[in-house]
Amino acid sequence: MSFNGQNDQSERREYPRVPVDFLVTFKVLEKSSPEEVATALDISVGGVGLLASAEISSPEGRAQISLTFDLPCLSGESRPVSATGEVRYCLKLTEENRYRVGVKFLQIADEDKLAIADFVRMRY
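User: That's the sequence. What structure does it adopt?
Assistant: Structure tokens below.
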């Protein structure tokens, strides 16, 4: 909580986030659903913010998803990253038929975590 009593999301962040714009392929693990594509809006070592065209949910509560994306590199190339994450929130946007989704990484390779940390540090 901030000093004025309002919830300040930046105070809850464990890791700094930076804005991004790349595609993420994901699949809800608890469902037998096809892979879907969303747009990454921001990223940190701890997770990624997505813009999805459908609600991401699970009958068991917070959905767990597998996700893959190509992390841009300074060389102009990209590095493939795979992770498992938990959907922490999925909010319907009012003006669009889209959803703002917050995903916390649960399992991610150490080298991918380091690559994300370097990516964030270069843009923070």
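The chain has one domain: 9-123.
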